[in-house]
Amino acid sequence: MTGKNFFLIVVGPTGVGKTAIAHELARLTDGEIVSADSRLFYRMMDIGTAKPTAEMRREIRYHLIDILNPDEIYTCKRFEIDARRTVEEILARDKLPLVVGGSGLYVRALTAGIFDGPNAQPALRERLWEEARTRGGQWLWKRLQTIDPSKAAQTEPTNIVRLVRALEVYEITGKPMSELEASARPFARSHLRIGLSRQRHELYALIDTRVDEMMSQGLLEEVKALIEKGYGRSQVLRRSLGYREMLEYLDGKLSLDRAVALIKRNTRRFAKRQMTWFRKESDILWLDITGEMDPHPVARTILNLFEQKAGGVDLH
After folding, report:
1. Fewer CB within 10 A of the end CB, N or C, for the chain?
2. Is residue 251 part of a domain?
3. Whole-prediction pTM value?
């Protein structure tokens, strides 16, 4: 049983253990996993995104993974539509939908909805990105604060992608993005959102270890293969952790050791930003799993919490 209209969301920073824990949850409940990770959408980007293995995907059904090529654009609105449809289909099969990811904006699009914004205008977007490169994110953020203080308050000055989009929407529509977002419609399904966290020293150690594993698994070779397939100039690649640093190494801008060190540093910083985002969300039930490397007991704890939320429905 699924608990009628309920579904489960598992969020947390990169490296915390979401993938293994969600997989165990799906195994225990005969559930299906819906990815809310903005890089798992892309084919051929496997090692650098820590994508679930082929064996895992044979055992459990995963959705919204490998649906795009690395040069394709995937908007939050499209994710909202696709993810809601997928959750409904899983519920219709009397299974538990498990939405898993570290992309807070995509999770918010699923649950709270997002406005149907204007299509990107390449020339305008390129101008804004050039301003970001020459003047910096803080300058873009101050512009956004002037025209849309509410949106600026929700956006970090380092999040160039979101700043560019908010300024782009304003220039195209003449309306603040926060005003347009007010038209979003919440998803008519109840959910429990679980947040996974670890003490910082442990999380950072896990991130460093994972980067070393990615390198030993062939991250550099994966990037070379993507270049050979014509994706070397893809903005998705150049804005993705691990891939952009490997590209800079291959461009002769960094030594390999320096590139690996930057992947670790940038991933740690990204994890910190993720936690900042999620801590602002009021409906997340947090579990500190510091010291626990076995996904099974964590999955059991989450399952018990979900059964309480779903009105005592037995999900075993």
Report:
1. C
2. yes
3. 0.83
User: Looking at the structure, do residues 217 and 106 belong to the same domain, yes or no?
Assistant: yes
The CATH number that applies at residue 268 is 3.40.50.300
**What digits encode the pLDDT tens for the residues 209-234?**
999 999 999 999 999 999 999 999 99
The total of structural domains in the chain comes to: 2
pLDDT tens-digit profile of 84-109? 999 999 999 999 999 999 899 999 99
Give the 3-state secondary structure of the chain: CCCCCCEEEEECCCCCCHHHHHHHHHHHHCCEEEECCCCCCECCCCCCCCCCCHHHHHHCCEECCCCECCCCCCCHHHHHHHHHHHHHHHHHCCCCEEEEECCHHHHHHHHHCCCCCCCCCHHHHHHHHHHHHHHCHHHHHHHHHHHCHHHHHCCCCCCHHHHHHHHHHHHHHCCCHHHHHCCCCCCCCCEEEEEEECCHHHHHHHHHHHHHHHHHHCHHHHHHHHHHCCCCCCHHHHCCCCHHHHHHHHCCCCCHHHHHHHHHHHHHHHHHHHHHHHHCCCCEEEEECCCCCCHHHHHHHHHHHHHHHCCCCCCC
Residue 314 placed within a domain: no
